[in-house]
């Protein structure tokens, strides 16, 4: 498939910089419908910075909140790469406002590649609702029944 965004475009679209940019690659894109995106989990990810050299292997687990955040960033890319999307209002960022029927079924560790499959349920210029799953090696580790995001001004209550 041609026309997939590379790292520079992904970084330009997401309002996250290092260390919170949690999408490395877009593998597939059907604008407005579905995206398959990846995040490689590495031992140098910021969430592991506080682990001591002697920490047991069991301590090296990507927090579930970062799995959700990475999935959410893939969803934002799907929203922004929709050929029918409008440019968000100046000063606004996408914010997760609803999460329903979400289940964590497994864990991610350094060396794993999260593969997010995100499907659009509904979209408009100011909100989007998606569903999907995150897998590692074909094994589902998270299911997202419904996530909704809106564009909001982070400085306003």
UniProtKB/TrEMBL annotation:
Q: Which GO terms describe its molecular function?
A: lyase activity
- SUPFAM superfamilies with a match to the protein in the record: Thioesterase/thiol ester dehydrase-isomerase (SSF54637)
Q: Describe the family membership recorded for this protein in Swiss-Prot or TrEMBL.
A: Belongs to the thioester dehydratase family. FabZ subfamily.
A Pfam family that this protein carries is FabA
Which species does this protein come from?
uncultured Pseudonocardia sp
State if Membrane is listed as a keyword: no
Check the record and name the Gene3D superfamilies matching this protein: Hotdog Thioesterase
Superkingdom of the source species? Bacteria
Record-given protein name: 3-hydroxyacyl-[acyl-carrier-protein] dehydratase
**Keywords tagged on the record:** Lyase
Q: Does the keyword Lyase apply?
A: yes
């Amino acid at each position: 498939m041609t026309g997939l965004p590379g790292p520079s475009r992904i970084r330009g679209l997401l309002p996250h910089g290092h260390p919170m940019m949690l999408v490395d690659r877009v593998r597939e894109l059907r604008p407005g419908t579905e995206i398959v995106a990846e995040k490689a989990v590495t031992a140098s990810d910021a969430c592991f910075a506080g682990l001591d050299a002697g920490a047991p292997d069991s301590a090296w687990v990507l927090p579930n909140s970062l799995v959700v955040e990475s999935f959410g960033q893939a969803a934002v890319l799907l929203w922004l790469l929709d050929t029918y999307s409008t440019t968000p209002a100046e000063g606004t960022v996408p914010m997760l406002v609803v999460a329903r029927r979400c289940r964590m079924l497994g864990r991610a560790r350094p060396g794993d590649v999260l593969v997010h499959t995100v499907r659009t349920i509904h979209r408009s210029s100011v909100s989007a609702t998606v569903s999907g799953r995150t897998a590692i090696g074909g094994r589902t580790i998270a299911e997202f029944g419904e996530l909704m995001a809106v564009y909001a001004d982070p400085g306003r209550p």
